[in-house]
Specification:
The chain has two helices and ten strands. By secondary structure, the chain is mainly β. The chain has a five-stranded mixed barrel. Strands 2, 3, 4 and 5 form a four-stranded antiparallel sheet that branches. A hairpin with a 5-residue loop joins β7 and β8. The longest helix has 5 residues. The structure holds zinc ion. The site of zinc ion has 8 residues, from loops.
Length: 151
Amino acid sequence: MAANETNKADITFFHPDLLEHRDGAPYLKGYRCKNCGQLDFPKLSPCPNCWGEEFETVKLSTSGKLYSVTDIFIGQAGMQTPYIFGYIDFPENLRIFAQLEGEPGSFQCDEEVELTAGEIRKNRDGLPLISYKFKKKSSATPPDLHRHYKT
Ligand SMILES: [Zn+2]
């Protein structure tokens, strides 16, 4: 019997309509108005531009530039301090508010951050609530030496 499997806590997802993370790298879902083309995140219905009510989902970029950042030391109930919030400017001309994953004081405005999925807080039952977050962009992409140095 796999007793551990049955006792395993369910993980609660926060706003599953905003974050796709089941297959491969996570991405955020933007909503584009089918009438006027305005793109919003999160979904605003009706469209604030034309009152349209039909939308198509758009896969947003997975990284953006940090517009502002705040370290929180006295937090909301259920949230373990310190934590970090920021506004991230996306190439799609969207400014998205999100929690940042990392050390307080380690983020700077204008730095590139990338999307990840992780615990943003606990729910009432003490279970982790998973949603989108941003972290420092990994610099683990080594240059392609063969291509650059071949003559
Ligand atoms: Zn519209």
